[in-house]
Amino acid sequence: MRFFGLIAVLAATASIAAASANTQVTHGQAGEPDVAVTHWSAIAAAPLTALAAAPAVIGMAMVHGAIYDAVNAIDGGHQPYLPQPHASPTASLDAAVATAAYDVLVGLPATIPPLTLPATLGGDYAASLALVPDGQAKTDGIAAGEAAAAAMLSARAHDGRYGAFRFSASTEVGQWRPEPSTQIGDPNAWLKDVTPFGIDDPAHYGSLGPDDLTSKKYADDLNEVKALGSKTGSTRTPAQYDVANFWAVNPPHLWSSITRTLATQEQLSTVDAARYYALSFMAATDTLISVWTDKAHWSSWRPVTAIHEAAADGNPSTTPDTAWQPFLATPPYPDQPSGHTSLATAITMTAQRFFHTDKISFSATNAVLYVPGTTTPPTTPITATRSFTSLSQARDEVVEARILQGIHFRRADEDGVSVAKGVTNYTNSHLFKTTGEN
Q1: 341 & 236 share domain
Q2: How many helices and strands (H and E) does the chain possess?
Q3: Does 180 map to a domain?
Q4: One domain, residues 113 and 223
Q5: In Å, how far are 216, 329, 332, 354 from 229, measured between CA atoms?
Q6: Is 290 inside any structural domain?
């Protein structure tokens, strides 16, 4: 039996206001905000988020899971993720962070074949250790980091990455097929078979699936994306155009940057930062595993196929347009539910719970395909910045962006949010509880 996400979503919403004890935040350990965890998160993100979303988020979760276990072995304030390495309470947190991150990164290429580490990585590690005074605290911190990294690499060595599963194309009405037909299917479809970090069964968080093709809701969604998401002749306003443009490039890179922005703004201690990043990326990974499981279950067609084939859907309120093309190239996997809206939800909801509020103002910068305010591609790569007054505002903008880009039905976007809420509620409630908490 599949357990759909409605109850989990309701619980998730309520839990933001009544966050559990494992998310108590202290600002600055001994008066000092974190530097090490955020520094190494940025170092890890550079090579990892150059990959597709699946290996990117898994790699980030592994790096930050090891950092968390190394830091927590020293601090002892929360329950470990993997069996806890022995560590002295006087060990250097900064040495533990740098070593855990470095050792996981060095070990990742063997299990993430496309990963190329920067030539500067060894120098980055040496520079981090050079900032820690020589002595027993440094030695003990290095040992804690080494033990945590080794445990993480061992635990994830056979976790299902790069398996044989691929999405099956179909010519049946409503079913997914590559668009265009020459498109190669998702090489990372194996994500659905990866062992989650926190949840037990990804299928428990599945959506109710796409709307019936003959329903009014389906027709409304199709006509919405047809009008707003077209590459040419769209009804997008200039403001909507900029939204579509901003959220079009590299979601894992952008959201990893946002996590660093939030951790820095909130001046988390090293201990809290270690837990916050680990929760964020483990929730994001488990969410994407659940989404890819659901995509495989429903295998529903994308808007571009639906618009081309509207004459066959049995709905009198839809009409075909065989020349229609989306603003953004359609990804090579099924529509339902949306991966980017789920990733955005996992990251923002973890932050909502961790900081006990949605009302955090922040800015984000991303590479863009067009010069903001125009339909002109830049002659050289450029970036754009958008500002938000709350976490949910950014998430909601992603929901709209995927419609404005022409690559998702609204139902798929909303269901991506729902799946993520269920998964994130579970991971944030069950991982890294305070020591002694049941």
Answers
A1: yes
A2: 14, 2
A3: no
A4: no
A5: 19, 11, 17, 35
A6: yes
Contacts of 74 by beta carbon, 8 Å cutoff, 6+ apart:
87, 88, 89, 91, 93, 96, 140, 141, 144
pTM greater than 0.90: yes
Residue from 196, 200, 104, 194 nearest 154 by CA: 104
Q: Which residues contact 252 (CB under 8 A, 6 or more apart)?
A: 45, 48, 49, 53, 56, 57, 60, 343
CA distances from 119 to 36, 140, 297 (A): 20, 27, 41
Work out whether the CA dihedral 314, 317, 320, 325 comes out positive or negative: negative
pLDDT tens digits along 159-207: 999 999 999 999 999 999 999 999 999 999 999 999 999 999 999 999 9
Number of domains comprising the chain: 2
Whether the per-residue pLDDT at 29 is higher than 50: the answer is no
Q: Is 160 exposed, middle or buried (0-12, 13-18, 19+ CB in 10 A)?
A: middle
Quick one: tokens of 358? 């949605």
- End residue of a domain, out of 105, 132, 155: 155
Domain interval for residue 422: 189-430
Domain end, chosen from 155, 179, 200, is at 155
Q: Which residues of 383-413 are buried (b: 16+ CB within 10 A; e: fewer)?
A: ebebebebbbbbbbbbbbbbbbbbbbbbbbb
Segment 275-296, tens digit of pLDDT: 999 999 999 999 999 999 999 9
Binning pLDDT at 50, 70 and 90, where does residue 218 land?
Answer: very high
Q: CATH number of the domain that 379 lies in?
A: 1.10.606.20
pLDDT at 430: 97
The 3-class SS string of 300-334 reads ECCHHHHHHCHHHCCCCCCCCCCCCCECCCCCCCC
Residues 258 and 395 placed together within one structural domain of the fold:
yes
> Which residues sit opposite 387 in a β-bridge?
363
Residue 438 has a pLDDT of 77
pLDDT of 15 > 90? The answer is: no
Regarding whether 350 and 266 lie in a shared domain, the answer is yes
Same domain? 247 vs 102? no
Instruction: Flag whether 36 is in a domain.
Output: yes
Distance of CA 417 to the CA centre of its chain: 12
